[in-house]
Amino acid sequence: MPASISAFFPAYNDAGTIASMVVAADRTLRELTDDYEVIVVNDASPDHTAEILADLQTRYPSLRVVTHSKNRDYGGALRSGFGQATKELVCYTDGDGQYDPREFKLLVDRLRDDVDIVQGYKIQRHDPFHRIVIGTLYHWIVRTMFNLHVRDVDCDFRLIRRNVFDTIELTQNSGVICVELMTKIEQGGFRIAEVPVHHYHRAHGKSQFFNVRRVGRVGVGLLKLWARLILLPAFAGRPLTRRVGKV
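Structure (tokenized):
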């Protein structure tokens, strides 16, 4: 039986999907370990996500809800989730239903003593064509800028040993946090395993990322993060990203 597990979902306007995500996660983790928790970070959703979560808490004692009074953006929600997790292993995915929490089992099955993070990669991306094009371009840019070696930086389906966060600190509030996370993991010499996972069409709501204003902010955020994690260490004579062995 694996170690204890925290599973969490950042949620913003995910009233149409969050109940099924919580139920699937609870059932899956129950099969994997006796010591688990499910956490939802409600990032000040203006829809009825809060009411659904309150009802779920009466049925699922493993569920904890973290509520933001003001929206902290995707990175802020992830930082809350990682900060609230209490178990030895932390897995997460988004609350919008584009990934299947039942596949948390795939992450746990791939974990070994010499693995610190199990990273998913999409078998096939199911999004509108323009999002696939932008996502492919984004992935190529960040892999090149940050010298990353994972197949799918943008796949928010991960299992991480909680003690990794004794070494790395996350600072970003936007979606750039995923690049920050994977860059610091590779720079820290942590061992990464990768597994294919399914990706589904969005059934409810709409993406918070794909609008002109937000894409512009992400571009600026990437440049600032690159300067801090790659450019400044190079000028200071410190080693850049270490290639992490795949297992």
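The chain has seven helices and seven strands. The helical segments are 18-32, 49-57, 73-84, 104-110, 129-146, 177-187, 212-235.
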